[in-house]
Amino acid sequence: xxxxxIKNILEQVERGDLSAEDAFIKIKTKPYTxxxxxxxxxxxxxxxxxxxxxxxxGKTAEQILQIAQTMIENGEKSVLxxxxxxxxxxxxxxxxxxFYDEISKIGIxxxxxxxxxxxxxxxxxxxxxxxPVAEEAALTAEFYENNVVRLYDVGxxxxxxxxxxxxxxxxxxxxxxVAGMEGALASVIGGLADCPVIAVPTxxxxxxxxxxxxxxxxxLNSCAxxxxxxxxxxxxxxxxxxSMINKI
Length: 248
Fold this sequence. Notes:
This protein is of the alpha/beta class. The protein is 39% helix and 19% strand. It has helices spanning 3-15, 20-28, 44-48, 61-73, 86-93, 131-143, 160-163, 166-171, 185-190, 213-220, 235-246; strands spanning 32-34, 39-41, 54-55, 78-82, 98-101, 106-110, 120-125, 147-151, 174-179, 197-201, 227-229. The strands form 3 sheets. The protein has a 5-stranded parallel sheet with strand order 8-7-9-10-11. Strands 3-4-6-5 form a 4-stranded mixed sheet, with helices on both faces. A two-stranded antiparallel sheet has the order 1-2. α1 runs antiparallel to α2, α4 packs across α5 (86-93) and α6 packs parallel to α11 (235-246). The longest helix has 13 residues, at 3-15.
């Protein structure tokens, strides 16, 4: 149930077309839809401004399909699905419209949202190997109708590549810095930017990187002001948070 539906119910009560008790029952009976294997939070958009997102890892293709179908039936025009495999995407796309990006493993069921011209979110990576996580962040931000600029493979091993794009850094309202190895990119960008920087450590790197732990600790210990850190490989979390900041 979205804000429009609740407003309509309240207007019916105001006109005397609906009793307060019936209105209460209408609102109370739609907090979530129970599918047995999942309880879909229909009120998430009302509480938080954005509808529930389907985390695809660990779910069967049929479960993802049923959740997406139910959300669309309950009024969602677009449903974001993260960590969805190509095989599952193919299965779902036979039943409902689905955009799928194999690099980021992002799926969008229903209508793909259009981009807006609001403040820019810059997504930068240390290397090409970080792009899958970066694209998860970028496509998440675009799903929430943000203007996203991509700046890939500008790590500190060739810092001139980053400095050549100083205009993009200066123009950004939020920056997402995605890097593995030692994770130094976030600190460097943090020292150049006048906007919030969201650091995303990736599991890219050799043995001593400990699957992203080294980058995570480096980013948490950044001496640059204005740098916050999300979990290892959490491109979705970075994209969502960047969208919230960009829309303030």
